Amino acid sequence: MDIFENGTKLPLVEEFYTLQGEGFHTGKAAYFIRIGGCDIGCRWCDTKISWNADIHPLVDVDNLVKKIAPFPAKAVVVTGGEPTTYNLDYLCSKLSDCGITTFLETSGAFPLTGEWDWICLSPKRNQPPQPEFFGLANELKVIIFEDEDFQWAELNANLVNKDCKLYLQPEWSRHKELTPKIIEYVMQNPKWQISIQAHKFMKIP
Predict the structure, then answer these.
(1) pLDDT digits over 149-184, tens only?
(2) How many CA atoms lie within 13 A of 100 on its CB side?
(3) Which of 109, 179, 181, 185 has its CA 20 to 30 A from that of 68?
C-alpha cells in the first residue's frame, strides 16, 4: 500500500463522537475514527463493511484532525478494520499537537506505528498478535465466541505485562448465551473482568 506509506491519507469507514462502550474506559466520551481494511476475517465480526479498504474514501489526516480538535473530550479512539495495517505516525503526531489523548483498538496483527497513550489489544486466533504488543498493551480484551476462546484468553494473559487490564467480552450475537458463562468464569478467575458492549445497550454508535 505505497499510497499510505507516509500516513497523510487514510481510508475512513466512519467517524463519530460518542461514549466508549467497551473495556476499561467504558462510559468516557471520545471521538472514534474507524479505518478501513482488514484481512483477518473473523466470522463473527460486526463491522465487515470495514474489511475492504477500497470502498471507503481516502481522507486527508490534516482535515480530519481539524474536525476533531474542537470537540470537548480530548480523546480519540482509532479502530477498524485493523488500523495497524497503516502507518499511523502522522495521525498520532497531529493529534498530539492538539493535546488529544490517543487510544488504539487493535488485534496486533501488524507492526505498531504511532505513539499511543492507551493500547487495547484484542487478539484473534486466526492471526495472532506481533510479539511487541504483549509488552505494550494497557488492556487485553478477548472476545468469547465459543468455549475454546477461554483457553485463548489465558494463553494471551500469560504473555502481557503485569499491569495490563484483563477483559473477557461476549460476542454480541451470542451475548445472552455467553454472558452467564463469562460471569461464572470471572468469579472463578478474578484476575479477569467482564466487558460488555454497553453502547449497543444504550443504542449509541
Answers:
(1) 999 999 999 999 999 999 999 999 999 999 999 999
(2) 29
(3) 109
